[in-house]
Specification:
Structural class: alpha/beta
Low-confidence stretches: 2-30
Distance between the termini: 36 Å
CATH class of the largest domain: Alpha Beta
Bound molecules: nicotinamide-adenine-dinucleotide
CATH architecture of the largest domain: 3-Layer(aba) Sandwich
Radius of gyration: 21 Å
Strand order of the largest sheet: 14-13-12-11-7-10-9-8-15-16
Number of helices: 13
CATH superfamily of the largest domain: NAD(P)-binding Rossmann-like Domain
Number of strands: 16
Helix content: 25-40%
Strand content: 15-25%
Largest sheet: 10 strands, mixed
Shape: globular
C-alpha cells in the first residue's frame, strides 16, 4: 500500500477544530442499508489482550444491541480459534482478508498492534465495512492521513478506540468551556503514571517470551510483521511490541493518546503548533528503543499549552485540570467541577457511564443504524496521532517539533515562522 499524495490528502480532509465530532458518514451513506432494527454482523481482527476485551463486549451486547458474531482472524491460529469459540462465531481465519471478504460482516474491529492499523482499516473500508479501530488510529502520521482520506472517500463509519470519548465528561466540559464558564483557557494538565516491577520494565513479558523461544507452528510470523522489516522469529517483538519503534510509539502512542484526546475534545483542539517530548530509557535499558519514561508539552494555536506528565516508575499522579482565566475545571472520578479562584463552584457535571468499551461500541452501532454522532471520529484520531508522534520525534531528535500546516507534516519548529500569539 502506498501513502497518499499530500496535496490530494489536503483536498479531501477538513482541518478545523469544528470538524471534531462531525464525520461525513451517516447511516444513509453506509453501503448495506441498515435499519434501526437490523442485526449487525461483526468480525474481530486480533485475538490478543484487547481482542479478548472486545470478545467480552460482543458477548455482553449480543442480545441488547442485536449483533451477529461472524468471524475472528488472528495470524496465530490458536488465538483465532479461541476467539471464534468465545463469541460463537462461525469462522476463524489466519488471513484477515478472508474475514473482510465476509458479506455478513457490517463492522470490523481492528485489535492488532499499531503498525497494522492503517492497512486493515483501509482494506475494511474498501470492502464496504464500518470499522472500530483500536487506538492509536495508526502508528504514523502519514498512515493516519491515508485513513482519513479513505474514510472521506468511502463515507464508511469509523470509530477510533479511545473509549473514554464515550464518557460524557469531555463533551460536557467542552460545552461549558465554549459557554465561557472558566473564561479564556490557557493551560491544561493530565497524566498517565504507572510503576513497573524493577526487574520487568514496561510491557516486558519474560514468561511468555521464554515459553515461546520457538515460534508456534500455527503462527504466521511474516503476516504479523506485515510492512515492518523482515526478521527471524522474535518473541520479544511479538509479545513486547510496545518496546520497539518498528511497531509502536511506546508510551506516547499507547498511553498518552488516551489522555491528550480527552483534553483535545474538551478544549476543541486539533493540531498542535509546537510540541516537546522529553524522557529517556532511564530505568530499563533492556534493548528497547523507545523511552521508558517520557513527558510531553503541546502548544496549540488558540494560545494554550497541554502538559502530559508521564512516568512508568512512580504512580503518584496529578489532577486532570483545565485552567482558564476565570476558573479551573477539574475532572474527578464522578465527572467534573469548575471553580473560580476563591473556590466558588461555577458549574459541575456528574458523568453518565465512563471509560467503557461497551458504550463506545454502542455509539458506533447507533451511528451505523441512526446516524448518532461518533464519539471518537477519525479527525480526532488523526489529531491525536499527530500530537503523540510530534512528542516522540522531539524526544528522538532533541528538537522542538512544529506542525507545518501547509504541507501537513511535522518538521523542526525552528524551520517554520510560527507565531507566539493566538491564531484562532
Ligand atoms: N483501548 C484500550 O484501552 C486498549 C488497551 C490495550 C490495547 N489496546 C490496543 O489494541 C491493539 C492490540 O493490543 P493488544 O495488547 O491486544 O496486542 P496483542 O499483541 O496482545 O494482540 C494483538 C493480536 O493481533 C494479532 N495480529 C497481528 N498481526 C496480525 C495480522 N496480520 N493478522 C491477524 N492478526 C494479527 C496478533 O497475533 C495478536 O494476537 C493495540 O493497538 C493497542 O494499542 C487498546
Amino acid at each position: 500500500m502506498t501513502l497518499p499524495n499530500r496535496r490530494s490528502f489536503l483536498s479531501t480532509t477538513t482541518s478545523t477544530a469544528a470538524a471534531i465530532g462531525v464525520t461525513a458518514s451517516t447511516a444513509k451513506s453506509y453501503g448495506r442499508v441498515i435499519g434501526a432494527n437490523d442485526r449487525l454482523g461483526v468480525g474481530v481482527i486480533g485475538g490478543g489482550v484487547i481482542g479478548n476485551a472486545h470478545f467480552d463486549v460482543i458477548n455482553k451486547l449480543k442480545e441488547s444491541n442485536n449483533l451477529l458474531p461472524v468471524a475472528v482472524s488472528d495470524c496465530w491460529m490458536t488465538r483465532a480459534e479461541a476467539g471464534k469459540r468465545k463469541i460463537g462465531a462461525d469462522a476463524a481465519y489466519s488471513e484477515y482478508k478472508r474475514l473482510i471478504d465476509r458479506k455478513e460482516i457490517d463492522y470490523v474491529v481492528v485489535a492488532t498492534p499499531e503498525h497494522w492499523h492503517w492497512t486493515m482499516t483501509i482494506d475494511a473500508m474498501d470492502a464496504g465495512k464500518a470499522v472500530y479501530c483500536e487506538k492509536p488510529l495508526t502508528h504514523t502520521i502519514p498512515e493516519a492521513q491515508a485513513v482519513v482520506k479513505k474514510q472521506k472517500e468511502t463515507g464508511k463509519p469509523l470509530q477510533v478506540g479511545v473509549q473514554a470519548m464515550s464518557d460524557d465528561s469531555y463533551i460536557t466540559a467542552r460545552d461549558a468551556i465554549r459557554k465561557g464558564v472558566i473564561g479564556k483557557v490557557i493551560q491544561a494538565q493530565i497524566e498517565y503514571v504507572r510503576r513497573y516491577d524493577s526487574k520487568k520494565g514496561p510491557w516486558r513479558e519474560p514468561e511468555l517470551v521464554a515459553q515461546h523461544a520457538t515460534k508456534p507452528a500455527d503462527l504466521d510470523w511474516n503476516a504479523w510483521l506485515g510492512s515492518a522489516k523482515k526478521t527471524d522469529w522474535n518473541p520479544n517483538h511479538y509479545f513486547e511490541w510496545r518496546c520497539y519503534s518498528a511497531y509502536s510509539g511506546g508510551i506516547c502512542t499507547d498511553l498518552f493518546i488516551h489522555r491528550i484526546t480527552r483534553i483535545m475534545k474538551a478544549c476543541d483542539l486539533l493540531y498542535p503548533r509546537r510540541v516537546v517530548g522529553m524522557g529517556g530509557i532511564w530505568q530499563w535499558p533492556d534493548g528497547r528503543d523507545l523511552p521508558d519514561n517520557i513527558e510531553m508539552i503541546c502548544e496549540y494555536p488558540r494560545g494554550m499549552t497541554v502538559y502530559v506528565l508521564g512516568t512508568m516508575s512512580n504512580r503518584v499522579g496529578i489532577d486532570h485540570l483545565i485552567r482558564g482565566y476565570r476558573g479551573t475545571l477539574k475532572f474527578t472520578k464522578t465527572g467534573w467541577v469548575a471553580e473560580d479562584k476563591d473556590g466558588k463552584i461555577l458549574a459541575e457535571h456528574t458523568k453518565t457511564g465512563g471509560e467503557d468499551q461497551n458504550l463506545h461500541h454502542t455509539n458506533l452501532h447507533n451511528h451505523i443504524r441512526n446516524g448518532e454522532t461518533l464519539n471518537c471520529p477519525v479527525e480526532l484520531g488523526l489529531a491525536g496521532v499527530v500530537a503523540v508522534n510530534m512528542a516522540n520525534e522531539s524526544w528522538r531528535s532533541s528538537k522542538m517539533i512544529g506542525w507545518d500546516k501547509v504541507n501537513e507534516k511535522m518538521v523542526p519548529a525552528d524551520t517554520l515562522h510560527l507565531s507566539h500569539e493566538p491564531e484562532v
